[in-house]
Amino acid sequence: MTQSPAPQPSVPEYEDRVHRSGAGIAGGVLLLGIACWLGIDAIVAGEGSTPWRALAALLLVVPLIIAFTLRPAVYVGDDRLRVRNPFRIVVLPWGQIEALRSGYSNEVLTKADGKFQLWAVPVSLRARNRAARREARRGAQEGGPMGTGGVGGLRGGLGGSRGGLPGGRPVVSDGPVRAESDQIMDDLRELMETRAAVRSAQGEVTVRWAYEVIGPAAAGAVLLAILIAIG
User: Fold this and answer.
1) Domains of the chain by residue range
2) What is the pLDDT of residue 122?
3) What Å distances lie between residue 89 and 32, 92, 121, CA to CA?
4) Residues in a beta bridge with 88
5) What pLDDT score does 177 carry?
6) Dihedral angle, C-alpha 204, 209, 212, 216, nearest 10 °
């Protein structure tokens, strides 16, 4: 008698997608390089209490740079949104999210009146303005007299891609041009609407403080204050 194979564990639909700020990471690497260069130089070449002050300053500054630049991330899963901010990690099941709001910053609002900022998805007004200008230009090209006829239609008839498809057919738009952070928020809203009622996407909002960042920074601040006080 043959035995039936053991049931295989269920495989998630996809691994968590991660959103991070490329500009923040680049700035963080640059700031860390400058801080380490100045701090190590002061430790090696300094005299008196200068090396100790430099060491305390590094202990204070390095965790803060990492917290505000390299650390922030948003992990998007089937059942929950995990937000890693400078000093906290927040886990939000989709069923507990009331809204995702975009203004001068991107925020998550919970049904319990909680509000959490998405540090890893910063708002860029410059990117919004640039996207708005591109959308206006595209709308003028597609909807204006040159979009389906005239030179645009002629180019389309000759097999070109600008102004129309081969055969003179108009270009079909893929949707409005959006800034990257606004597109990410649109995707999160769509996923929230899809998953909010799913049983596995229910639960409680949990918040954990990042003591691995707060501890070293606080120790560095105390040590630096003591060194300055005693001269």
Assistant:
1) 16-71+210-231, 125-178
2) 86
3) 23, 10, 15
4) 209
5) 59
6) 180
